[in-house]
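re: ur question from earlier - yeah i can do the single chain one, its not a big deal. heres the input i used so u can compare w yours
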Amino acid sequence: MAEDPTEFNDLAAKMPDKLKQMQDLFYAEAKKHDVLPLDNSSLTRWNAPKPNLTGGRKVFTYAGAMTGIPNSGAPSILNKAYVITAEVTIPKGGGEGMIVTDGGRFGGYALFLSKGVGGIRKGKPVFLYNLLNLKRTVWAGPELSPGKHTIAFEFTPAAPGLGKGGTGVLKVDGKEVARNTMENSTPITFPEDETFDIGSDTRTGVAMVEYRYDVPFKFNGTINKLTFNLGDEQVTAAEREQMRKTVAGARD
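and the output i got, formated as tokens:
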């Protein structure tokens, strides 16, 4: 180390016996501690199908608050049509807070009642889609009165394919209150360090400027029922094959 502190000089060719000794020692220790077999295909293993509670399901129903659900246990809205329906009760004085969210600052979505500032814009139903922290698309309706309401967000992709955009419609009690489009959507996954939450937001918020809120942003009303209805995945056969080849050839 004194003569070559950066370990720039390759000594393997000069000291083959020492190299062999170190290799043998490594594999002996690796075997002892159950490290073998060595596997450099972490991306392939990460993307491999695994048993989970959401596989093949198209309808998810929840009631009340629930937080900290990983992506593998949450309904996936990626690359498909979907409808999110929330049956809620708004308290006297107005509602605010998170109804449901998946993701956060660097990508995801949220359905919530706005916090407002000084009582202005409070209690408005908002669906916000955060595309990889690059662009946020917002749907917002008028403030909800106290009592029971049904809030629904419906998204229809513009075309089959990975990460396609489409049209979203926000409805309250069966009436359309907002319609907007987005050019692209998240193609692969929402951030793995964020979670699926109902009734609050446990990590970072999806909003940055418009309709920004502070976590945990607990919903102050009652979530009587929350339903996800998912369409078929819209990834094309060509895209599936390209993804398969990419993953199969990946070496970390």
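The two ends are 29 Å apart (CA to CA). not sure if urs matches, ping me
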